[in-house]
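<amino_acid_chain>
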Amino acid sequence: MNKKFLLALGYALFGIMCLGFLFVGKSLIGLIILFALAGLYIAVVDAMERALAADILPLDKRGIGYGALATVNSFGDLISSIMVGFLWSNVSTASGFWFSSIMTLIGAAAMLFI
C-alpha cells in the first residue's frame, strides 16, 4: 500500500469513528472499539503525514517542511475545534460529530482523487 492511500485510510477511520459515536450509545464494548479506532487513526495519520512529507520534501528543506506541517496541523486543529465546539454548544452534540465525519470523509476522498 502506498503512503497516500494509508493516510486517506487514516482519515476515513476518523470519519467512521465520529459516526460511531453518534450511534454507539452507552455500550461499553462499542466505546472500547471506538477508542481503539481513535488510537489506530492517530498512529496512522501521524506516521503517514511525516513519511509523505519526507518523500515530497528535498533533504535540505525537511526541517522547515516538518515545521510547516506542524503549523498547518495546529491551525487546522484550532479551527476545527472552534467549529465543532460551536456546533456542540449551540446546535447539538450530534451536529459536531456529523460535521467532523462529513468533513473528514470528504478529505479522505480528496486525498485519493487529487
In short: The mean pLDDT is 93. The chain has one domain: 3-113. The radius of gyration is 16 Å.
